[in-house]
Amino acid sequence: MDLKGSLVDTNVRIYPTNGFLEYIKKIKDDKVPENILKLKNGSDYETKCNVKDFDYFAKTVNLTNEDIELLRTIKKTISRDSAVKVNKTEIEPEFVEHDKIKTNKTKTISKNVTDNDEKLTDKKESIENSKSSNNTIGNDSEADKNKGTYLTTSDVYWLYQHLQQRRTNGETVPYLHELLEGARIEMPGNKVLKRNPVLEARCVKLRAQQEAREYRKMTKGVDNVRMRFPEDSISYQLKQVNRQLIAIGQFIISIFAGFLFGFKGVEWMIGSLDFGFRLLLGVMCALVIALAEIYFLAKKLNEELNIPETVQLGGPPKFVDAKKNEYLVKEPKKSTDKEHQE
Amino acid sequence: MSNIEPAHDLLDKVILRQLDLLEQKIKCELNIESNVNNGSIHLAKSRYIMGQSSVSTTKLPTESSPDFSASIMCKTIEEDGMTKLKLYQNKENTIVPLHWFGVLVPQNLHMAQKIFQTTLSYVVECSNIQLQLKENMKNINALRKYLNIISKS
């Protein structure tokens, strides 16, 4: 009966690989985001730096037009390239060394396929896995060691800008994608909310009462004692008659009031009117009101008189037995130990 | 080749974008969740007000009821070289779904309807992000292949 709470933290968690970690440890900079500092100095490292200091970093990297152009040309060359390769393999299949590659089209850059490419598919898989289920178990043991220390996207943005800055200064630094190679990406998990045992006990009690009520209703026809009760009692009949009389009385009164309004009220408002016209007005008003009133009258008369049973209802004994019921918690006895009595 | 530098840089950017899109998608899904929750609460409230039988599945149109078309539809458009989904209002042969439950329905039912309508736009947004994610994944693969080829040759 546990519920899944909604997500609180929407950040993706990126668990870096060893190579990445080593690189991070080499960073010499004062202004570093918290998570990177944690990675640098161990998970229990506490920082005093203010998170707000890093808000000024651009949080999105947009592709410029040149980038898009470049992408397009690259894609073209790729498609041309792979087409050529595919042709080659078709002409001379005996030259293909890797059997795997032949079967798997995603890896078809024929002989050029290296470990790198397999890593790529690995990463893709890991991304897709984490998309489908929140609890991906990382295949690389190195990430498990660093549980608790992870990067968020803003850290990665920071790193990107940091690397670019250093590159413009003329240093040779690795590219971000090389660092991220093999990193595990995890989605934030849902919090599981435990059901309150008090609420659970109350639910059990209410359910038991409801069932007992239904049972009593069902067995009413075969129980000699209750069969004639309460429909045959005089008070029930009188109440029923009363109710209907009141409803009809209301109906008549409102129609009469409507007629009076048309007959007298309009005359008082406007001035003296012809008797025939007044009568017509009154009847018209009364008719309109009667139409509306009939709807309510029908509704009222359709209802059945419901006398609540005076007997205190409890659950049948099966609900008291905690072992038989999966919903039950420790002590539901207090609430449901009264059996129904006659 | 002189293209290596920008290609590396581009791959960085594309990967960053992928991460960004992932987060966007999560946020969008959260939005959907909270909206659906809200709408359901309003629906439940109107059910409480009107009675159990007047707001229930028995009031929904069945197979034998006359045909009608959806009042909000979805179409694919091309924008900036990307396929996107877009909602639009359909005016022909539509019905007012609130009339299934009666002419004078409580305000909560109207609110629930509005909330579910906004949820629809979130759903479309989410699927748009999903499309972009796929596109981006393709870009990443292409760039990787390209870099591989260059580094080998």
Structural class of chain A: mainly alpha
Q: What is the helix content of chain A?
A: 40-55%
Report the structural category of chain B. mainly alpha
Secondary-structure element series of chain A? EEHHHHHHHHEEHHHHH
Beta-strand fraction estimate of chain A: under 5%
Instruction: Count up the domains of chain B.
Output: 1
Could you say which overall geometry of chain B the principal axes of the C-alpha atoms support?
A: elongated
Number of strands of chain A: 4
Q: What order do the strands of the largest sheet of chain B run in, or round the barrel if closed?
A: 1-2
Number of structural units classed as domains of chain A: 2
Summarize the structure.
The complex is a heterodimer of chains A (342) and B (153). Chain A is mainly α. Helices cover 55% and strands 3% of the residues of chain A.
Sum up the structure in keywords.
heterodimer, A: 342 residues, mainly alpha, 2 domains, two-stranded antiparallel sheet, 4 strands, elongated, disordered C terminus, B: 153 residues, two-stranded antiparallel ribbon, 2 helices, Vacuolar ATPase assembly protein VMA22 (chain B), unfolded protein binding (chain B)
